[in-house]
Write a structure and sequence with these properties.
By secondary structure, this protein is α/β, with parallel strands linked by helices. It has helices at 15-26, 38-42, 55-60, 72-79, 85-88, 103-115, 129-134, 145-155, 170-198, 203-211, 218-223, 238-255, 260-277; strands spanning 8-11, 31-34, 50-51, 64-67, 94-97, 119-122, 125-126, 137-142, 159-166. The strands form two sheets. Strands 3-2-1-4-5-6 form a six-stranded parallel β-sheet, sandwiched between helices. Strands 7-8-9 form a three-stranded mixed β-sheet.
């Protein structure tokens, strides 16, 4: 049973995870935080974060524990083992897993969490750092409906839309299906700009036309300007984009689904990463 004012654990305080944790603190929650690079956690201490020394400690001291890390290996490192999240979960606790990783990893962790007497919500998010900071993320959740209702008040502090899509693993699959749109649209938008510019049209004017046309998605509205003015710090890197695209293609192969546009986007982003641009902003 989750108390009315639950203590929250948060493991993984990178650019996005740190923004979500900051939002939870801003809303008056007590948050225990862990990050492998400790300085990331310590940066949130002035906002009220209680820095802990392991994922297990974050889970053991909380009623609801979140994790948000970059890939399958990182998630397994923080979730499993004697110092991992699952080892620290209290009976009846909720583990909310936010990462974009393989659906099978989420299914496996859900089983391990259940055997520990707790429940896992596979709950990746859609949105930018700005959405996280303002509480406007969108959740796609795989997990027990009753557990989701228990966690809903906390999720609503950081996201305005929560959609249950099925069971653990289904949230990750839906996230991959969502993210492939980001990369395919980004690549197509860049090609539109290139065509216009090669024909002598000022790229700023071309961007204005495109962003005021029917092709302008909410994602392009905030990401496309990065093509002309790079952010000081990458919001999302090409390396991470390649990771997501390869996961989507792996899932598609397992399900027998042909994704030709996604495969073309993966090839383009992989070439960019191999040319040394992996740490750059994906836009």
């Amino acid at each position: 049973m989750i108390p009315d004012r639950p203590v929250i654990g948060f493991v993984g305080l990178g650019t996005m995870g740190g923004s979500i944790a900051a939002r939870l603190l801003e809303k008056g929650n007590r948050v225990l935080g862990y990050n492998r690079t400790r300085s990331r956690a310590e940066a949130l201490a002035p906002a009220g974060l209680q820095v802990v020394n392991s994922p297990k400690e974050a889970a053991a001291g909380s009623d609801v524990c979140f994790s948000m890390v970059t890939d399958d290996a990182s998630l397994q490192a923080v979730a499993r083992g004697p110092d991992g999240i699952i080892a620290g979960l209290r009976p009846g606790a909720i583990y909310v897993e936010l990462s974009t990783v393989s659906p099978q990893v989420a299914r496996d962790l859900a089983g391990e969490t259940s055997r520990a007497g707790a429940s896992l919500l596979d709950a990746p998010v859609s949105g930018s750092v700005a959405h996280a900071r303002s509480g406007r993320l969108s959740f796609m959740v795989g997990g027990d409906p009753g557990v989701l209702e228990s966690a809903r008040p906390i999720l609503l502090a950081i996201g305005e839309k929560i959609t249950r899509v099925g069971n653990p693993g289904d949230g990750k699959l839906m996230k991959l299906a969502t993210n492939l749109q980001v990369y395919v649209q980004t690549l197509a938008f860049a090609e539109s700009l290139r065509l216009a510019e090669r024909g002598g049209i000022d790229p700023r004017i071309a961007m204005e036309v495109l962003l005021n046309s029917v092709v302008a998605s909410p994602m392009l509205q905030y990401r496309a300007p990065f093509m002309l003015e790079r952010p000081e710090q990458a919001w999302f890197t090409i390396d991470l984009s390649v990771k997501d695209l390869l996961l989507a293609l792996e899932a598609a192969d397992q399900l027998g689904a042909a994704l030709p546009a996604t495969r073309a986007a993966a090839d383009a982003f992989l070439r960019a990463a191999q040319s040394g641009r992996g740490p750059d902003e994906v836009a």
